[in-house]
Design brief:
Number of domains: 2
Family: Belongs to the trans-sulfuration enzymes family.
Largest sheet: 7 strands, mixed
Oligomer: single chain
Pfam family, one: Cys_Met_Meta_PP
CATH topology of the largest domain: Aspartate Aminotransferase, domain 2
Radius of gyration: 21 Å
GO cellular component, one term: cytoplasm
EC number: 4.4.1.1
CATH superfamily of the largest domain: Type I PLP-dependent aspartate aminotransferase-like (Major domain)
Order of helices and strands: HHEHEHEEHEEEHHHEHEHEEEH
CATH class of the largest domain: Alpha Beta
Number of strands: 12
Structural class: alpha/beta
Enzyme class: lyase
Helix content: 25-40%
Number of helices: 11
Length: 385
């Protein structure tokens, strides 16, 4: 865990992460009203006369979104001044930043080891006449192709390889060259990393994963400190209509109250699992940024406050990986990550990721850590060749 975990109160730093998460975005208390109002289901609102006021039409604004956006903003930028916009999914949020900020003739730098859907984004950007450059996350390699770019897109830790780049170093270099910086903060969550504090212009994430933590909704968001850039993202959301449902937004806000509890338990389980897998004869390529001997540890320790719930490693073959996953008792074979129930998958089954056939992406849940580690070690032993 990084030096500033923010888990307790401090006169200088304000409330701790748990207090902030529990109270984030709540409205002022009103007698006889619920602490967190229920979801507002409305396509339109009463609107006599001129269209003034915050709520006019359900594609543009919704009171349930407003509370959630305020809550996420308080977590991503505790100092205030940020604007958050929620979306129907993480990819909707990613697309909103890229397509609202880039124009034909611009250049953008993307990681070549990022989220699996990014190659589809690259194709669409190229079709719009935008130059796409790529480089790995590790070693801040995107610096080498940054000159002349309009936007630098970072994903740190990367998914699924768990490489980490130095956000502040890259942001400073990008800004010196006149480029904007966006960081996919999905794997870290705002309690693990605050990209805006590190110099990024946009913090973008899928709320589908650990932010909401129960594997039961799709959501995305963009947080930005600049009002003009936020307005461009908002305009894109209006044009494409990539809005969350009020029920999803309300469930997401309700889930934030347990974010710190979930994150700390899941991070502890991920670290325990990674330590247990160290030196196992059948495991290769073990990665977890919280391990002191991980290639990403030094950078992660400087900029991350928590290291995430995902551990990656490889087994000798596709068949062995499939047997291992089938033998697990407390772990679901499912895609995505960040849920309170542990999940794992052989990532190569989807194609698109440059990983070995036996590569496992493991998302530690909130089970008892001893049970989880014992289950994994037993499954490895039972499926050994």
């Amino acid at each position: 865990m990084g030096a500033d975990a923010g888990t307790g109160p401090s006169a200088a730093k304000g409330p701790g992460d748990g207090t902030r998460a529990v109270r984030a975005g709540l409205p002022e208390p009103v007698k006889h009203e619920p602490t967190l109002p229920g979801p507002v289901f409305a396509a339109h609102f009463h609107l006599p006369g001129d269209p003034t006021g915050p709520y006019t039409y359900g594609r543009d604004e919704n009171p349930t979104w407003t509370l959630l956006e305020r809550a996420i903003g308080e977590l991503e930028a505790p100092g205030g001044g940020a604007e958050t916009l929620v979306f129907a999914s993480g990819m909707a949020a990613i697309s909103a930043v890229l397509f609202s900020q880039l124009r034909t003739g611009d250049a953008v730098v993307l990681p070549n080891d990022g989220y699996q859907a990014l190659p589809l984004v690259r194709e669409q950007l190229a079709a719009y006449g935008i130059e796409v450059r790529t480089a790995p996350t590790a070693g801040d390699a995107q610096l080498d192709v940054l000159d002349g770019a309009r936007l630098l897109w970072l994903e740190t830790p990367s998914n699924p390889g768990l490489d980490v780049c130095d956000v502040r170093r890259l942001a400073d270099a990008a800004h010196a060259r006149g480029a904007l910086v966006a960081v996919d903060n999905t794997l870290a969550t705002p309690l693990g990393q605050r990209p805006l504090d590190l110099g990024a212009d946009f913090s973008v994430a899928s709320g589908t994963k650990q932010l909401t933590g129960h594997g039961d909704l799709l959501l995305g968001y963009v947080t930005c400190l600049d009002a003009e850039r936020a307005a461009a993202v908002r305009r894109w959301r209006k044009i494409v209509g990539a809005i969350p449902g009020p029920m999803e937004a309300w469930l997401a806000h309700r889930s934030l109250a347990t974010l710190q509890l979930r994150v700390d338990r899941q991070n502890a389980n991920a670290l325990a699992l990674a330590e247990a897998l160290r030196g196992h004869p059948d495991v290769t390529g073990l990665r977890y940024p919280g391990l002191p001997d991980d290639p990403s540890y030094k950078v992660a320790e400087r900029q991350m406050r928590r290291f995430g719930c995902v551990v990656s490693f490889a087994l000798p073959s596709r068949a062995r990986a499939d047997r291992f996953l089938e033998a697990l008792r407390f772990v679901d074979d499912a895609t995505s990550f960040g849920g309170v129930r542990s999940t794992a998958e052989r990532r190569g089954r989807w194609g698109g990721d440059a990983v070995p056939e036996g590569f496992i992406r493991f998302s530690a849940g909130a089970e008892d850590g001893e049970d989880l580690v014992a289950d994994v070690l037993r499954a490895l032993d039972e499926t050994a060749d």
